[in-house]
Amino acid sequence: MSLIAPGGSIARRQKRLLLTAPGPAVPDGDGGYTQTETPLDPPALFGHVRPASVRDMERIAGATTLPTASHLVTVPYHPQITTETVIHLEDHPKPARLLKVVYVGNPDERNADLELICAEQVN
């Protein structure tokens, strides 16, 4: 039995990721609503983050049509991660960056790792 995770060594998962999903809409005081974020359970995990190449997207997503992708993220399996998930990438000492999940891949449907294609959200 191998001690190396299917997605690579656990030592490669050096980035701490905070995971959120859309929460309920709350009144903003001006007659409209603001979308809130709700943490997933568990709300944080460590993952491997790297820039996505065209080759990566073809390997993972195949013929699926995707919006522009900027990062490939490998994390341990988390059943609540969907294409609605937003990843807050802690990148100390720089401010956290936001990655929107645009594709969720579950290699061999083993529920061991997830391969995520993400688009960076720029404010």
Spell out the blueprint of helices and strands.
Layout lengths: L14 E13 L5 E19 L2 H8 L9 E6 L9 E4 L7 E9 L7 E9 L2
Antiparallel strand pairs: 1-2, 1-4, 2-3, 3-6, 4-5, 5-6
Characterise the protein shown here.
This protein has a six-stranded antiparallel barrel. The longest helix has 8 residues, at about 55-60. The chain has a single domain, classed as Thrombin, subunit H (Beta Barrel), CATH 2.40.10. It has about 120 residues and is mainly β. It starts with 14 loop residues before the first strand and ends with a strand. The protein contains one helix and six strands, in the order ββαββββ. It has one helix at about 55-60, and strands at about 15-25, 35-50, 70-75, 85-90, 95-105, 115-120.
Feature tags:
disordered N terminus, 6 strands, six-stranded antiparallel β-barrel, mainly beta, 123 residues, Thrombin, subunit H, 7% helix
Total helices: the number is 1
The Cα radius of gyration reads: 16 Å
Task: Give average pLDDT, whole number.
Answer: 83
Q: What's the number of domains?
A: 1
Multimeric state: single chain
Q: What fold name goes in the CATH topology slot?
A: Thrombin, subunit H
Secondary-structure element sequence? EEHEEEE
CATH hierarchy, class: Mainly Beta
The SS-based structural class is: mainly beta
Q: Can you name the CATH architecture?
A: Beta Barrel
Shape from CA axes? globular
How far do the termini sit from each other? 45 Å
- Percent of residues in β-strands: over 45%
CATH superfamily: Bacteriophage SPP1 head-tail adaptor protein
In which range does the helix fraction lie? under 10%
Q: Report the sheet with the most strands, covering strand number, pairing sense and barrel closure.
A: 6 strands, antiparallel, barrel
As residue ranges, the low-confidence spans are: 1-7
Tell me how many strands there are. Answer: 6
Main-sheet strand order equals: 1-2-3-6-5-4
